[in-house]
Amino acid sequence: MKYRIISTLSTHIWGLLRMSEAILKINDLRVNYGGIEAVKGVSFDVPEGEIVTLIGANGAGKSSTLRAIAGLVKPAGGRIEFKGEDITAKDPTAIVTRGITLVPEGRKIFPDLTVLENLKIGAYLRKDDLTEDLNWVYDLFPRLKERSWQAGGTLSGGEQQMLAVGRALMSRPKIIMMDEPSLGLAPIIVRGIFDIIKEINKRGVTVLLIEQNANMALKTAHAGYVLETGRITMSGTGTELLADEKVKAAYLGT
Fold first, then answer.
1. Residues 6 or more apart from 238 whose CB is under 8 A from it?
2. What's the angle, vertex CA 46, arms to CA 195 and CA 49, rounded to 5?
3. Is residue 156 a contact partner of residue 111, using CB atoms and an 8 Å limit?
4. Over its length of 254 residues, how does the chain's per-residue pLDDT go in tens digits?
5. Which residues pair with 40 in a beta bridge?
6. Which of 43, 62, 153, 197 has the smallest set of CB atoms within 10 Å of its CB?
7. Got the DSSP string for 102-171?
8. What angle do CA 223, 227, 233 make, to 5 degrees?
9. What distance in Å separates the CA atoms of residue 223 and residue 51, rounded to the nearest whole number?
């Protein structure tokens, strides 16, 4: 109990120190599914230009948090603020228009459409020329350029993940949210995905990341939050959380 109180207090103080830089602010977010409370008053912020990760066990509320930010589920309470605007009640299209996009768990590409068609769907709200952004995606993922006329469903798991990320980038997001991008991928592909995440961030895109591979996530992220049963219990820089004994025991296998 003493540890939990100290961790919660330090989370609050640490969040206040970073709040002025935030592009995205989550305050007392609550998400219910029927009578089950999946997210129980979560508060955190995402500074512009950084990589922030949420780690925790399955069922901790991580995906529900991202889905609420993306407008895919309606929060039961709390406030979601993006660049100073309350977007809590906005629909998914309005949220994408403002510059927030989600790479969902399981990729959710369109298997019968070509790679190029999948990428263009990511830009469905845009009316301008897509050439520059297509070239950027192809620079990040040369395999997609090689397979631009191939059906998405015939790609390997790693290539489909590349396609899901590329599709999200086609909307020119200010912040990209990724839900378990390494799930089911071979270790060598996982390393490549995390290199791409860092490269995307270097190009000026803020990243909010949920990842089962806590070790890779914390090594990549500037900052992180630990979720347990719908609540944030710890926060700090990626380096600080990697060194924390409780995080090591619970999530790093050491």
1. 53, 217, 218, 219, 220, 221, 222, 223, 224
2. 50
3. no
4. 434 444 444 444 444 444 448 999 999 999 999 889 999 999 999 999 999 999 999 889 999 999 999 999 999 999 999 999 999 989 999 999 999 999 998 889 999 999 999 999 999 998 899 999 999 999 999 999 999 999 999 999 999 999 999 999 999 999 999 999 988 888 888 899 999 999 999 999 999 999 989 999 999 999 999 999 999 999 999 999 999 999 999 888 76
5. 30
6. 153
7. EE-TT----TTSBHHHHHHHTTTT--S--HHHHHHHHHH-HHHHHTTTSBGGGS-HHHHHHHHHHHHHTT
8. 85
9. 7
Structure tokens at 249: 């025991």
> CB–CB of 233/43 below 8 Å?
no
What are the backbone dihedrals phi and psi of residue 200, each rounded to the nearest 5 degrees, phi first? -60, -45
Token pair, residue 162, equals: 């590349």
User: At which residue do the structure tokens 């406030």 appear?
Assistant: 79
**140 with 200: CB under 8 angstroms?**
yes
Query: Would you tell me the crossing angle of helices 131-140 and 157-169 to the nearest 10 degrees?
Result: 150
Q: Which two tokens stand for residue 244?
A: 């924390």
- Determine the Cα–Cα distance for residues 180 and 196; give it in Å rounded to an integer: 14
Round to whole Å and give the CA distance between 143 and 102: 22
Q: Tokens 């296998």 identify what position?
A: 253
